[in-house]
Structures are given as structure tokens and as C-alpha cells.
Design a protein that fits this description.
There is one protein chain. α3 runs parallel beside α4 and α4 packs across α5. The protein is an alpha+beta fold and 238 residues long. The strands form 3 sheets. Strands 1, 2, 3, 4 and 5 form a 5-stranded antiparallel beta sheet that branches. It has a two-stranded parallel ribbon with strand order 6-7. The protein folds into 2 domains: 5-85; 111-207, 3-Layer(aba) Sandwich (Rossmann fold), CATH 3.40.50.150. The mean pLDDT is 86. β6 (123-128), α4 and β7 form a beta-alpha-beta unit. The longest helix is centred in the middle third of the chain and has 18 residues, at 145-162. It has 6 helices and 9 strands, in the order αβββββααβαβββαα. It binds S-adenosylmethionine. S-adenosylmethionine is lined by residues 110-112, 129-132. Residues 124-230 form the DNA methylase N-4/N-6 domain. Its EC number is 2.1.1.113. InterPro entries: DNA_methylase_N4/N6 (IPR002941), MeTrfase_CN4_CS (IPR017985), SAM-dependent_MTases_sf (IPR029063). Keywords: DNA-binding, Methyltransferase, Restriction system, S-adenosyl-L-methionine, Transferase.
Length: 238
């Protein structure tokens, strides 16, 4: 039985020497952890000069056998590609944190303009529910979907600057429907959250989780949610 991370590391290191001898100086091991769903150890294989950079994984059985792994050729290709790309350790903004110079305040205005006026590192949390492109087609102000994404990109990039390092940004978005214009055409579903994720990742945010807002029966848009909302005695219960 292998009982310690140290033993597991030793077994994996030996496997690396057998299968990846030519790149072994560029490859090291992350923290071995037990996966109790399958009763195996999982050992991350990382770049030596950027240990947060995962390039493979080895699966070690409790008896010390290498049960499975990322293909050695793939680990080798990833190692060679990233050796040059990731030469400096991942950089983080590490300035000292000063309390926000703005007091609690309600500001009414265009998000972009208001954000422009806030100094960097002033926000500790951002929660926003931006327009969903054409969710209300009659009041959609965007020329097309690309213009909508460009608008979001501008706001998201500015939010990244205004938020302090390590803080959360929660954004409420949903796919929307572009209705068909005739019986011979089809409606189209636009996956806004997927495109927003791309924008957020390129602005430097790390995805943490998606929270699905499940509305109870009767609350759906096309079931007259608006009317129900107005008539309900407890409209905010969901
Ligand atoms: C999906 S709704 C969210 C509503 C919000 N959760 C609320 O309870 O009022 C989007 C809101 O964004 C506002 N909005 C649209 N463009 C904006 C902009 N450039 N700056 C600030 N707010 C904007 C719209 O007026 C609308 O109220």
C-alpha cells in the first residue's frame, strides 16, 4: 500500500525518468491527492519554472502501480511549447491594499462613464445584471450582437481595473432568443454567457462557478412572468 504523498511522488518521478527522460529537467510534480471516488492517487505533472502550469497527470493505484497517465508525447509537446512561453513566474498585482477612497454612495449614470471616474482598486465586489442584448427587442439599442459584446468588453475591462486583486465579479447573463421573422425562417438562440466568459477570461478574470437561477413554474418569461410579477402579493419571492 502507498500511504504517503512522498511515496507517490517517488513512483511518479521514476515513471517520468523512464518515459520523459529528455524533458525531465523541465517537468516537476504538484501535490498528489487521493481521489476517493476511484481510490487512486492523482499526481499533477507541472512545468518546473511555473508550477501552476498543469501539463499532465499520473494516476497511481493504492498498490503503487502507475494505472494511467496523460500520454508522454503530449506531456513532452506541452512542456516544449511552454518552456519558452512561461519563462517568468505568473505575475499578480501585489500592491498594498488601501481602503476605497469613495464612501458608500448610490450613483446613477452610464456604467462606462461612472467606471472611468473610479480610481483603480476601489471596489471589493462587483455584481451586475447588464442588458441581455435583445431580451426586450423593442428597446434593444445595439446595432448588432457584436456591438453589444464590444460594449460589455469595455465595461468588463474597466471593472477589472477598478476591482482589487482577488475580488469577485458576479455577472448575471442568459442566452436570448432572436425570434423568427416568418414561417420559412428559424429563430436563433444566442449563447451570451459563453461569449461573456471569453471576454472575462481575456480581461484577466478566472472562472469560479456558474449559478443557475431556476425559476419556479409560472415564472417563465413566455408564461406571462411580467403580468404575474405585477399581480403577485410577494413578487420578490423568487
Ligand atoms: C437586465 S436589466 C437589470 C435590471 C436590474 N437588475 C434591476 O433590478 O434594475 C439591465 C439594466 O441595465 C441598464 N443599462 C443599460 N445600459 C446601461 C449602461 N450603459 N449603464 C448603466 N446601466 C445600463 C438598463 O436600463 C436596465 O435597467
Amino acid at each position: 500500500m502507498v500511504n504517503s504523498a512522498k511515496e507517490v511522488r517517488k513512483i511518479t518521478q521514476k515513471w517520468i525518468e523512464q518515459h520523459l527522460a529528455d524533458v525531465k529537467d523541465f517537468v516537476s510534480l504538484g501535490l498528489p491527492e487521493i481521489d476517493d471516488r476511484y481510490n487512486v492517487w492523482r499526481v499533477p505533472i507541472v512545468l518546473s519554472n511555473a508550477t501552476s502550469h498543469l501539463i499532465g497527470e499520473a494516476k497511481i493505484g493504492l498498490l503503487g502501480n502507475v494505472m494511467d497517465s496523460t500520454r508522454p508525447e503530449l506531456i513532452r509537446t506541452r512542456a516544449k511549447r511552454f518552456i519558452n512561453e512561461v519563462s517568468a513566474p505568473d505575475r499578480k498585482r501585489q500592491e498594498l491594499f488601501y481602503p476605497a477612497p469613495i464612501p458608500n454612495k448610490v450613483i446613477l449614470g452610464d456604467a462606462m462613464k461612472v467606471l472611468e471616474e473610479l480610481p483603480p482598486d476601489t471596489a471589493q465586489l462587483v455584481i451586475t445584471s447588464p442588458p441581455y442584448y435583445n431580451a426586450k427587442p423593442e428597446s434593444c439599442e445595439f446595432i448588432d450582437y457584436q456591438e453589444y459584446l464590444n460594449f460589455l468588453r469595455g465595461v468588463i475591462i474597466r471593472i477589472r481595473e477598478v476591482l482589487s486583486e482577488g475580488r469577485f465579479f458576479t455577472i448575471n447573463v442568459s442566452p436570448v432568443l432572436v425570434r423568427r421573422t416568418s414561417r420559412s425562417t428559424s429563430s436563433k438562440r444566442i449563447p451570451i454567457p459563453f461569449d461573456v466568459h471569453q471576454i472575462m477570461a481575456s480581461a484577466g478574470f478566472e472562472f469560479i462557478d456558474d449559478i443557475i437561477w431556476v425559476k419556479p413554474e409560472g415564472a417563465g418569461w413566455n408564461l406571462g412572468r411580467g403580468r404575474r410579477f405585477a399581480a403577485d402579493r410577494q413578487p420578490l419571492q423568487y
